[in-house]
Design a protein that fits this description.
Blueprint: H1 3-8, E1 12-22, E2 26-35, E3 38-44, E4 47-53, E5 62-70, H2 74-87, E6 95-103, E7 108-114, E8 118-128, E9 131-136
Antiparallel strand pairs: 1-2, 1-5, 2-3, 3-8, 4-7, 5-6, 6-7, 8-9
Length: about 140
């Protein structure tokens, strides 16, 4: 499945990871989701912005309600115009925005990353003697 398929299937979001071990070189955002009993990970590489408005305290998982995928919004253009001199390049045309709306708490996650830097992977989980092993499907 590609990212659009995974996010359309009322996926349940299980985990988030942010990788900035080499800030400016490796800026990644990873989401692990469950769709129809299968675990998927979506890697957003070359991330320029993550804006999370998460509501907690509800005893229910965060389920993808809908996703708005598209161009950079006007409010974000101001942010990038400020940073273009630092980056030394025009980057806005190379970026795509994903705004993920969640149920039941009404949370939203906005991720802005380079268009060609998004990967989706399926994982299978094998449990042996209470130890979890992961195997990447190819």
């Amino acid at each position: 499945m590609d990212i659009n398929d995974v996010l359309k299937h009322k996926a349940i979001i299980n985990e988030f990871y942010i990788d900035r071990r080499a800030a400016g070189v490796v800026d990644s955002f990873l989401m692990k989701l469950t769709v129809d009993g299968k675990v998927y990970s979506i890697h957003f590489n070359d991330v320029f912005k993550v804006d999370m408005k998460m509501n907690f305290g509800i005893v229910a998982g965060d389920v993808v309600n809908y996703v708005v995928k598209g161009c950079i919004q006007e409010k974000d253009k101001d942010f990038f115009e400020k940073w273009n001199p630092v980056l030394g390049q025009k980057i806005i045309s190379d970026l795509i925005s994903y705004e993920i709306h969640l149920l039941p708490a009404g949370s939203t996650i906005q991720i802005i990353a380079k268009k060609n830097a998004i990967e989706t992977r399926a994982w299978s989980w094998l449990i042996v003697k209470d130890i979890k092993y992961r195997k990447l499907y190819e």
